[in-house]
Amino acid sequence: MNDLNRNLKSEDISIGIELGSTRIKTVAIDQNLSTVASGHFEWENQFIDGYWTYSINDIWVGLQKSYSAMTTEIKEKYDLTLRKVKSIGVSGMMHGYLAFDQNEDLLVPFRTWRNGNTAKAATLLSEAFQFNIPERWSIAHLYQAILDNESHINRITYLTTLAGYVHWYLTGEKVLGIGDASGMFPINIDTKDYRIDLLNETNNIFKAKGFGQSVEKLLPEVKLAGESGGLLTKDGATLLDPSGNLEAGILMCPPEGDAGTGMVATNTVAQNTGNISAGTSAFAMIVLSNTLKDMYPEIDVVTTPDGSEVAMIHTNNCTSDINDWMNLFGEVLNVMGVDFSSDELYGHIFERSLNSDDNIGGLLSYNYVSGENITNVDTGYPLFIREPNYQFNLANFMKMHLFSAFSTLKIGMDLLKENEYINIDKLIAHGGIFKTKDVAQQILASALEQPITVMETASEGGAWGISVLAFYAALDTEVPLDEFLNESVFINTKASTLHPVEQEVINFNNYVEKMKKGLSIEQSVTKYLGGDMNARSVKS
Prior knowledge:
Layout lengths: L13 E6 L3 E7 L5 E8 L3 E3 L2 E3 L2 H23 L8 E6 L5 E3 L18 H11 L8 H10 L10 E3 L1 H10 L3 E3 H4 L5 E2 L4 E2 L1 H13 L12 E3 L10 H7 L10 E2 L3 E2 H8 L7 E6 L3 E6 L12 E4 L5 E7 L4 H16 L6 H11 L10 E4 L16 E4 L7 H26 L6 E5 L8 H10 L3 E4 L5 H13 L7 H9 L5 E4 L3 H16 L1 H11 L2 H4 L2 E2 L1
Parallel strand pairs: 1-6, 6-13, 6-14, 9-12, 15-21
Antiparallel strand pairs: 1-2, 2-3, 4-5, 4-24, 7-8, 10-11, 15-16, 16-18, 17-18, 19-20, 22-23
Helix pairs in contact: 2-3, 8-13, 10-11, 11-12, 11-15, 12-15
Family: Belongs to the FGGY kinase family.
InterPro entries: ATPase_NBD, FGGY_C, FGGY_Carb_Kinase, FGGY_N
Pfam family, one: FGGY_C
């Protein structure tokens, strides 16, 4: 047993659960906000009947298995059974579409942020609002369903996100943290609620299309970090912990999106700070000190969990294509009878990229497993192209994939920097791609021409971030969130910062220019292969 936690009690524990794009993770933290146990459940999105989705059954099976794995670890390490814990929080992938009828039945399978079928609705709403409505946002999904005359639309009584859905079933409360809510509908930064003027505009637009319900009645109530999101019900406790150990009545913080928990996990909720999350998708979150002057289809305007305005550059694709290639390399090694761990595979091959040529062998990759709004790609097809008169070797091949992972994000960040006055005091990166020390971090610093910091806690991720928000909600304090993070959470955190390297900046910029010139190749693939993706079910 850990001597530092020999007196650990159930009441000391705050629990965070995050439903991410590749796994559901549960984290338990103690009164010092240190992780004492964790558990996870691997899952994948599926492309079914034209939509990217996750099984509702997998949501609950995954939650239970992830939670159970955490409780097993805490029992083994501390001989502790969790019963009445301090607080619980739920986080999930932002955006998407979960629509329910008056019987609380799901009307259509969960449509995730990855779906790009809402382009028409997003464009029409953006023009009407003079405010960018991305294709991923819940209101765009709803309007597209209205435009498509889907049979379920007149039966909708509630619309929420993945985190909001799970929280609702655990507490009975139809609420949502402001950060997650800002990915459903535009937020008024002054009132910390949905924009009334745009709600009225939406109702008029929808009514003209035969949809008579008031949108504001369909949306969750907005809550701020530090407020109560309700209490765990008896049914909710059984749903999360079928063993019956977990008790009802536990405080739950407002459910938040993965972007918000990423900001908490990297201590970037204060103005002029930012973070970059790199996983299945990638997004940069820059907390603004001034409202953007113009509207950009490439830039979302969302909020921190405590309601500050954020410029969000989101790319649908980041590491999925790399992971697929790594799986292929792993299969080759298995056939050869070579024993290796995943960390060894990624580590050695990532480090090999350090020996690449400046022109990375004339190689080019589009890592688009799904469509990409920033580069106007409707349907994604991972594409690898090479010029035959250069060095085709592993170092160049892996550098190409690492460049590809950040290229679309670079395009969005450049647009923001070139058109708006943005002051970034610090930019923190987190995600599995940074696990191999310095490699991806150095590429990102050179790509964005900005110092990039990686914290030693970066691997804790969003599940830890929502556990911190749960802990914060249980405090009897009015200390602002950024002050709480600075003075109580990150006061002794170690971090490493890498600066741009001149030659790597040149190499990356040259690569992105080549990538832009070749975009018509990627954009045209669907013309010749379109239909295959919609005719079958696939896993990403």
